[in-house]
Cytochrome c domain-containing protein (Sulfuriferula plumbiphila), 108 residues
Amino acid sequence: MKHLAILALLGMVASAQAWAVPDGNAAQGKAKSATCAACHGADGNSQAAMFPRLAGQHPDYLYQALTEYKSGERKNAIMSGQVTNLSEQDMADLAAYFGSQKGLTLKR
Ligand code: HEC
């Protein structure tokens, strides 16, 4: 019984780690965003229709998109090259930075 309890505990720790998303730091993200700016704009407001605007997007969405490019789940030749050397922390920081920028405002 004791062993079972320990195994259950280990399983919980392992799964918590698998799902842990690092807290993004926008200031760190800004420092890491120089290469992204060439296409997406310095503040994430891209000027070209072929590059999506990142400014004001939900950080969770941006983080998920980046991790999916990295895992290959989302395929894009340009972006897969961009994320190769990014850690999970880098991606969380970048998501926090671009998500905190002022994006397009809805006209109501
Ligand atoms: C050479 C141009 C280029 C560079 C540099 C670049 N991107 Fe992209 N990015 C693109 C293109 C093109 C797409 C659209 C790809 C697609 O259709 O999936 C994209 C898509 C994205 C998306 C998904 C947006 C959405 O609305 O789903 C995110 C997030 C993103 N880029 C973040 C970044 C970050 C962060 C960096 C810097 C580490 C970066 N990009 C660097 C061209 C670029």
Remarks:
- Residues 20-99 form a domain with the Cytochrome Bc1 Complex; Chain D, domain 2 fold (CATH 1.10.760.10).
- The pocket of heme C is lined by residues 35-36, 38-40, 50-52, 54, 62, 65-66, 76, 78-79, 82, 94 (CB under 6 Å).
